[in-house]
Amino acid sequence: VVTEDQANAEPAATTGADGAGSPFDLTSANADERLHIDPVPEAVEALEQSGFDPVQEGKLTVAHSAYEAPLGFLAEDDNATLLGIEPDIANLVADGLGLEYAPENVAWADWPLGVESGKYDVVVSNVTVTEERKDLFDFATHRNDVLAFSVAADSEIDSIDGPEDVAGLTVVVGSGTNQEKILLDWFAENERNGLEPGEAVYYDDNAAGQLALVSGRVDAIFGPNPTASYVAAVGGESKVVGTLNGGYPENAQIGVTTAKGNGLIDPVAIVLNSIIEDGTYAEALARWDLEDEAVAESLVNPAGLPRP
């Protein structure tokens, strides 16, 4: 149950150099303001009956890939504490299951093997439900997937809505992501139509990509909308010029992800639907200004993005 103090708490604006002007507290103190709930009896019972054994007894080991506020990132004061909506949601899931939240920061490319092999119980890291991923993983949805194109604030580009808008552009995108697939499909379509295809550019971290954008080395960044909107609002050096669903042209959702058939996903969904119903979920999203990405219900293994 969320306490009144927690429900009314507003994240303090940070004054640190890296987070100057941020509407959020980007320090490790933010973790102390997370919402908490009591164990959800139905979820606890379902977990006991599932036969699932956590990696660490009494704990839910959660893989996150630290990226940028407000999804998942490292606190600016200790560069170790995981903050953002994804850690907040994972913490609530752990609470609801009667387990202790044990976060792990892992590279995006490493989470699939880590979850499949049982090194981590779940991953909560902006993972979109796809039919291909469902071969190896189970999903309980918790957020709509929205992507955005960002350009430098002084760029003459004012709209990116389709393939022709990226013709000839150099675009930063994450390797192995759904946005990469969309972008490469658009480039291929341009080539078929006699237009310049464009070029995908890859960086190891968001800061490097943002620096390339503002310095004029690339034309655009294509990534999660929450991050793009946050960086534009706080830094003022970029602007969002187009958004689309992460499953374009289909609809897609983000899900808490577990190994296929390990019994954990149904208890997770029970917790997620419990916090959706009692309002805790909405309060968690509001802490990071992500109300627009809310789902009405957590679905287990819904139809995902089509296979390539």
UniProtKB/TrEMBL annotation:
Pfam families for the chain = SBP_bac_3
> InterPro entries under this entry?
Solute-binding_3/MltF_N
Q: Look up keyword Signal and say if it applies.
A: yes
Q: Which UniProt keywords apply?
A: Signal
Record's keyword annotation contains Signal: yes
Q: Which PANTHER family does the record associate with it? A: ARGININE-BINDING EXTRACELLULAR PROTEIN ARTP, MEMBRANE-BOUND LYTIC MUREIN TRANSGLYCOSYLASE F
Q: What is this protein called?
A: Amino acid ABC transporter substrate-binding protein
Which lineage do the record's taxonomy fields give for this organism?
A: Bacteria, Bacillati, Actinomycetota, Actinomycetes, Micrococcales
